[in-house]
Amino acid sequence: MKDIIFTFHEGSPKYKQVYERFKRWIEQGELLPGEQLPSIRRLADSLQVSRNTTLMAYEQLMAEGYIQGESRRGYFVNRMEPLFLREAPSRSVRPASPEPSVTVDFRAGAVDQAHFPLKAWRRMLNRVLAEKESFLYGDPFGERRLREQITKYLFQSRGVSADPDAIIIGSSTQQMLLQLGHVLREDHSAVAVEDPGYDGAWEAFRFHSFGIRTLPVHETGIDLSHLDRTDAGVAYVTPSHQSPLGVSMTIRQRQALLNWAASREGYVIEDDYDSEFRYTGKPFPALAAIDSSRVVYLGNFSKSFLPGIRLGYMVLPPGLLDRYRTRFHNFETTASLPNQLAMARFMEDGEWSRHIKRMRLVYKRKMMQLISVLDRLFGGQVTMVGKESGLFLLIKVHLPYTEEELIRRAALQGVRVYPSSAYFICNHPDRPMIKLGFSSLSAEEIGLGAELLKKAWV
């Protein structure tokens, strides 16, 4: 393939522009299946960018299946199914309304690639793959080296005192809830969930035919008064950073919830999904730090490190641990063994704590910038919800549009924003709420995205 040269535009990271250009060429058939791409070095030299820029673009293309890398040979275009190819419209047919290109994507759940410790993580993986241990099946409940590191981390960061043997490693929060549900269903038929809340958890509970009972959550906090009027014996909550409203549960509420669980001989499932990123004040102690006998503690590495690593964990109380181990000791782990061992090394070498400290500052700056620019551009036309922590911001929009209209109008300006309606069961808000993730965006993209939203909505 000849050297590639094109002009970059402002407002979008260069790696993203390289990725989008190659993606378009592949989808439009300008790059054919099996065709070899320039090497990382050659492409970087052609475009006059850093090798890290071209590497990140290629890795994104590989992650989405557009290309594949072959050892010592290079990168090659994959064969795409017709469903995923954008065929050029027939000359006799005029396309109705072409989908506008996306300039800024406020997608939550992505990471800041510019600050990702790629070299350190690659070094850990290379060390792990040189060991015989990584070629085995591994412990069905998770590698002990990683469980020991999680034990130390939870005690230092969240005040949770956990035995490594009480920790279960899995691939995701939802997957662990599915397995946990097998055990909880023996004694309980209904579970109380936050409304609004994490819909992925609801689906896991419904899979086991749990009755779903709702606990209304407002911008001022959770309403626990409904608990005593339900038949639930299990409650699933996100007390440190409620998903999606961002409020935190007070100490009094935490104690009341634990007392309820004890009175029902039930359990509280505490999803501490992004407790690392609190920007104002000190975080409240985890529920599991107050009473470990009635709390199942859930954590993961997806929000704070890398979604694709597929690593999560839960700490089981004594009343569930033996039953869980008996039920699942003949099942293989769902988490990647090399990723477990690499993360254990990453934590042992202090890279994890350095990464968290660095990203807390990075994400705090992004949150503050998003709040500032929205306040400047919209003033009282939007209410910002969940400003103290997390990797996204909810905005309640006080304009004469529905959620669908807000999303459509933003898309016409090249901005992708996301709905919140899927998180509500009965407790619907009085105005539409839009979810804005900022973790993967640069400062320039945040500012540009807000300007374009102003143009779209006002």
From TrEMBL:
Q: Which GO terms describe its molecular function?
A: transaminase activity
Q: Which InterPro entries match?
A: Aminotransferase_I/II_large, HTH_trans_reg/aminotransferase, PyrdxlP-dep_Trfase, PyrdxlP-dep_Trfase_major, Tscrpt_reg_HTH_GntR, WH-like_DNA-bd_sf, WH_DNA-bd_sf
Protein keywords: Aminotransferase, DNA-binding, Pyridoxal phosphate, Transcription, Transcription regulation, Transferase
Q: Does the keyword RNA-binding apply?
A: no
The record's Pfam families line, in alphabetical order, gives: Aminotran_1_2 (PF00155), GntR (PF00392)
Cofactors (names) = pyridoxal 5'-phosphate
The HTH gntR-type domain extends over 12-80
Q: Does the keyword DNA-binding apply?
A: yes
Q: Sorted alphabetically, which PANTHER family does this protein's record hold?
A: HTH-TYPE TRANSCRIPTIONAL REGULATORY PROTEIN GABR
Q: Which family, according to UniProt?
A: In the C-terminal section; belongs to the class-I pyridoxal-phosphate-dependent aminotransferase family.
Q: Tell me the protein's name.
A: GntR family transcriptional regulator/MocR family aminotransferase
Q: Which organism is it from?
A: Bhargavaea ullalensis
